Amino acid sequence: MDFNAIAEHLSVANVPGLLSVDLPRPPDKKTKDKGRSGLPHVCVDPACMVEFLTFCRDDEALGFEVLIDLSASDPSVDDENLWILIQLLSVRHRHRLGIKSLLPKSALSMPSSTRVYRAAQWHERECMEMFGVTFEGHPDPRNMLLPDDWPGYPMRKDYEFPKEYHGISCE
User: Fold this and answer.
1) Which residues pair with 110 in a beta bridge?
2) Nearest-angstrom CA–CA distance, 12 and 101
3) pLDDT confidence of 28, banded at 50, 70, 90?
4) What is the pLDDT of residue 37?
5) How far apart, in whole angstroms, are the C-alpha atoms of residue 62 and residue 16?
6) Helix ranges (DSSP H) in 66-144
């Protein structure tokens, strides 16, 4: 299935959380749209992510048995949202799906995807440490890259690197 067929299948099935489909587009000077490059993706409500992923995994026509990636992106200091980005793969059907979810920086919490895809465990832990996202229901929310008392979230655009950590210069 190509992306358009996958998007149509999700729309017809009325999958919980599906908000929109975002395709690459060229810039438009009339509407001042900057355009968007990259791969097509579906936009999903973060509160419904578990139900959405469960459908993508269990639906026979889609069969997305592998979560390849779960990450976040902070587009700018001024943007009100973080982007949660997920990539799914169906080895059997040989197709992929990109998923994007906007999470308000004022409320960085969403349900954990680990009960649908075990591979999400490490990815979610990295997002917790680097971006400050809380994944509710995560089975092991310990830090794996930074010390437990590290100040802030290094991948956020508003992060200020500490001058010192436990008496050790960071400059």
Assistant:
1) 135
2) 20
3) confident
4) 75
5) 15
6) 120-131
Q: Pick the residue with more confidence: 140 or 166?
A: 140
Looking from the CA of 70 toward its CB, the CA atoms found within 13 Å total 25
Q: Model confidence over 48-89: pLDDT tens digits?
A: 999 999 999 999 999 999 999 999 999 999 999 999 999 999
Q: Where are the domains of the chain?
A: 3-123
- Residue 15: CA count within 13 A, CB half-sphere: 27
Cβ atoms of residues 42 and 99 within 8 Å: yes
Indicate yes or no: pTM above 0.85. yes
3-123 carries CATH number 3.30.460.80: yes
CA dihedral 72, 11, 5, 23 (to 10 degrees): -50
User: Could you tell me where the DSSP H helices lie in 108-157?
Assistant: 120-131
For residue 85, the cross-strand partners are 71, 100
Q: Are 137 and 114 in contact (CB under 8 A)?
A: yes
Per-residue buried b or exposed e for 1-29, using 16+ beta carbons within 10 Å of the residue's own CB: bebeebbeebeeeebebbeebbeeeeeee
